[in-house]
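INPUT
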Amino acid sequence: MEQELTSLRAEALSAISAASTVDAVEELRVKYLGRKGALTLILRSLGTLQPDQRAAMGKLSNEFKVEVEAALEAKKGELAMSGVKNLANTQWIDVTLDTPAATDRERLGRLHPISQIQYEIEDIFTSMGFEIHNGPEVETDYYNFEALNIPKHHPARDMQDTFWTEDGNLLRTHTSAIQIRAMEKVKPPFRVVGPGRVFRYESTDASHENTFYQVEGMMVDRDITVAHLIYVMKQLLKEIFHREVTIRLRPGYFPFVEPGFEMDIHCLICNGKGCSVCKQSGWVELLPCGLVHPMVLSMGGIDPSMWSGFAFGLGLNRLIMMKYGINDIRHFLSGDIRFLQQF
Amino acid sequence: MWLSLNILSQMVDTTGIDPEELALRLTMSTAEIDSIERVNEHFATIFAAQILDVKQHPNADKLTLVDCDLGTRKIRVVCGAPNHRTGDIVPLATVGTRFSDDIIIKKTKIRGEESEGMLCSERELGLSEDHSGIMVLPAGTKIGASLSEIYPHRADVRFEIDNKSITHRPDLWSHVGFARELGALYGRPFKSIVNYDLMKTFRDKEKLSVRIENPDAAPRYSGLVVTGIRIEESPDWLKAMVESIGMRPINNIVDITNYVMAEIGEPMHAFDRKKLSGQEIIVRMAGNREPLTTLDGSVFELNPEDIVIADARGPVALAGVMGGGNSEIEDGTSEIVLEAASFNPVNIRKTANRYAHRTEAAIRFEKSLSPELTIPALLRCFDLIKQVLPGAEAASTIIDAYPVKQKTIVIKTTTDFIRTRLGENIDDARITSILTSLDFKLTPDGDALSIEVPSYRATKDISIPEDIVEEVGRIYGYDTITPKAPSVPCAPPGKNLFRLFERRVKTILSGNHNMIEVSGYSFIGEDTLTKLKVSEDHELRLRNPLSSEQDRLRRSLVPSIMNSVRYNSRFHDDFAIFELGRVYLKKDRSSTELATERTMVTGAVYRKKTGDPLFYSAKQIASGLMHKLQVADWDLVPESSELPPFAHPGRAMKLIVDTQAAGLVFELHPETIVAFDITGSAALFDIDVDLLYATRRRDTVFTELQKYPDVPFEVSVLADRQVYAKEICGIIRKSGSDLVQSVSVVSMYEGSPIPEGKKSVSVKVVFASRDRTLTTAEVEKLQKQTVGALAAKGFPLR
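OUTPUT
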C-alpha cells in the first residue's frame, strides 16, 4: 500500500504540474481527492489493515493529501494569475457585436406615441390640480351634442361629421362629451380633464383620420375670465413644449363656449417665420377654447349666475405630428412596428 | 366662401389697407381667412400700347417686328399674330409680367431679334375665348394706361373665408356683413348699397299676391314683378364680379340674383312670370310625395316637411333650395318675378340634406337669416337690372307677406359684467364705442345697459349677455388681454385610479415584457371576423360605415391584433405587440341603451421560425402581469373545450381571477394561421382589464429570508403523455406539509426507452424548515413520502 501511495503521489504531482487550465486542475482534484477519488478509496481501505500499519498508512495518506492539495492550490493560483495577465488576448471578444435580440430594435418594448404624450399631458394637468375623468366612446346624442348647446338640425353639426350606430347613438366626435358627464359627478369649483379617443365620419388621407385622440379640459370657479384662460393655457403649453411659446387668441365658433376662441401658437418648426408646416403663416392652430356657455353649465347642473368657467380641447395627434415631424396621420393606427419603434 | 375686395370697397373705404393686413384683422376679430388670391395682378404691367410700325421678321415668315409706343417709352416686340396693324392700340405685356408661375415675360431674342414684351390676345388675358389675333383696344384708349386701370373690375383681390368660422353668423355670409366688420375695425363708415328711392318708380300694374300658409315655416315672402327683361350675357364687369366670388356667369338675370346674394346675403330667385299660373303665389308645405323637378333636372317626390313655392297648378320651387324647372327663366323670358323670402332654417336644412342639395341658398337659409333682408335685396336686385337693362321696369309694388314680424332683441347687461368675463379693465367709453360701431343701439338703464341687437344679428347669433362680451372682446382684441393666474384652492386633485391602472398594465407589458403597444381601430368588418370564424353578427353596426371592413364596432381586440400580426410579419421575424383598448358589447342591438364598454388588453407573440411552442411566451407574459399587478387570487388552468375557434385546442389556458373567467392565453389554431396567410406562429393573451382592476390585490409583506439549509431532492416519474406536470407538482406539494419549500419541473422526456404514450417527468423538490435544520432522518422520511404519494397516484419512479 505504501508503494501504491508513493506512485499515486508521483502521478498526481506530475499531472498537476502539467495541467494547463483551471478546469483541468479541478478535474484532478476530483480524480485524486474527490468522493470517489483514488486517495479516498485508499483511505476507505485502511480499515482492513492491522492497527500498527493502519496508523502509519493513515499518516502517510494525510501527508499525501496535504501535499496534493497544496500542489493543486498552487497550480490553480499560477494558472489564474497567468490568465489574468494575458486576458486581453486570451479572452478577447468582438465587443462590437450584439446579441441577436439587441440588434432587433423591435425587441424593445415601447408605449404607443399617443400613450406617451397622453401620460405626459395627464401628469402636467395633475400637477396643475386637474382631475382626470373618463367617458364612453359610444355616446348619446345628448352628451355629445344637445347638452353642449348643439340641438338637432343645428348647422354646427356639420362641423363634426358623425358616425351613428344602429341603436341611434353615436361615436363621440369630441372629448367635450366628457364635460357634462364630469359636471354631473363633481361640484364646483373644479378642474377636470377628459382624455380619449374620438371619431369623425371622414375619409382618411395623410391629414385626415376617422379616429384620433383629444384631451378636453375644463375649469369652473367664481368669476373665471378670459384672462385666466390665457394664463392657464400658456402655462400648459410651456410645459408641453418645454419652452415659452408665443400664442395668439382669435375668435372661433364652438356652440358650447361663449365667447369662443382658436388659440394658435407660433409654428415651432420655423419659429413663426413661415414654412410648409404652418402654410407660410407662421401660426399653427392648436387649441380651440372659450368660456363655458351658460347653457352648458345649466345642463351640467351648475348655476351660471354663480359660476363661470373655461374649457378647451387639445388634439394629441396633431401635437405629436408637430413634435416629431410626422407627415401622415394614418401611421398612428396602422399598428406598424416600423413606425412605433421610433418613439 | 369668397370675398371680393372690389365689392367690399363699394361699401367701405379700403384705401390704404394692405390686403394681408386686412385679412389678419378679420382673422383676429371676425372670421378666419384661409387664403388671399390676387386676381389678374399681372394686369398692372400690361399696358395699352399704340403700334408705330410693323416689319417682317428677317428670319421667320410668320413673325413680325412690332414697334410700340407706351407713352413714356418705345418698345420693340416680336409677334406671331396675323391681325395687328400700325395705329392699333393693343395690350402689351411688359418684361416681368407674370401670367402664371411658369409664364413670365422676359426680355428675349426670337430668331435673332430682340423682343421686350408680348402683345396679348383676349384669351391670353382671360377676357374671352378669342385667340384669333391680338386684342385691339377701342380707339381713344389712353396710351400707357395699365389694364388694371382700363378694366378695374377685372383686377381684384379675393379672400377665402373658412366657412366653419361663420357658422353662427348669418350676416357674414355676405359682403355687407364683412364690410360692416371692417367699418367697425378701422373706424370707417359703412355705406349702404341699397337705393330706397327706387321704390318711387314702382308701378302697381301687376295684380300678383302672396299667401303664406304656414308662417312658422316661412315668416316672410317678398316679390317684385319686373318687365322689359331681355335674357342675355352679362356685361363684362358683372361677369368679372361673379367670377371673383367663385361663381360661373350664366346670364344677366341669374348673375344678378347670385351677385346680390353674395352682396347682401339674401338668396334670390327669379321666376318667368309668364310661366306662373294664376295671380297668387302660395308658400306652403309640400304634399306627401308631391312631385317637383328642379331646374338642375332633379326629380323629387317631396316630403310634408319640405316647403314649396306654388302657383295655381302646383309647386314652382323647392323653397330655400332651388327653383323649379317649370318656371325657369330662359332666352325668351320678358317678365320675371323676383323672390326674396325667409324660411325656417330647420326645414331648409332637413330638405337640403334629404335631397343632397346643399345649395348656396340652403347653406345661408339654414343659418337663420333675418327676414328684414328681403326688401333691401329686392331693391338692390332691381337696381342692378336697371343698370344692365335700362328698359326694365318694376310692374308691381313690392308684394310682401310678413305675417310674423322678427322680434327685436334687447339685452340687459352691465359694463362690469363685460369686464369681469374678459378679465380686462376696459373702460365704459371704449365698450360703448365698440358696440355702437357694430350697430348696437345702447340705452342706459340705471347701472345697466339696454342693448338693442341689429336685426341681421338678432335671429340666433346674439341673445345673451355673454354674446355681448364676445362682441366687445373680439373688437378690443383678445390678444391685448393680459393673462392672469386664477386663485384656486391649493389641494391635490383626486386621482383617476382606473386610468393609472391602465397605465400600469401598459408599462408592465412594454417595460417588463418588451412588448410594443399598438393602437387599432374600434371598427371591424366581416372579412376579418370570418377569418377568425367568429362572424356571428353580434357586433353593434354603424349606420354610416366608411367601408365594409369598418362597418361595426369590435367586441374583442383579437381581430385587430391579428391584422397587426399579419401586417408586421411581412417586415419582422420576431416581435411582441399588445393593445389596451375598449370593446363594445350589446346584447340587444336595437335597444337605445349605450353599449357596455369594457377595457381589454390583448397581446401577441409572433415568431417566423418554428421552434418551442410560443404558447409558453404568451403564458409567461400573462402570469408576469398578474404577479406585477399583485392580483391576489388568480390561476391559469388548461382549457380545451370552451375555446373560440381561433384558439389551438391543445395549447390554451383560461385565466381565472376571483373564480371568474378573466381571459385566455392560447396559441393560434393552425387553421387561423392559414386563414390569415401568416408564415410562422403566434400566441396570444386576451385579458379583461376591468376585472383585473376590480379584483383584490395582494399586500406586500416581508418574508424572513431562509436561515436553515435547503435540501434538494430530484425525482423522475413515469406519467401518461397528457398528464399535466402541474398535477404531479401538486401531489408532491401536498405530500410534505410545510416542509416542501418549492417544487419545479426540471425536464420532460418522451421517446426511447420510455414506452409509447408515456413520458418521464423530472421534478426538483426542495425541503427546508423555517425554524431548524432538517435531520437526515426527516429528509429521508420526506423523500419517502414524496415517492409514496406519487406512486399512490399512479406515477411510479423511473
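end of record. Chain B touches chain A through 97 residues (CB under 8 Å).
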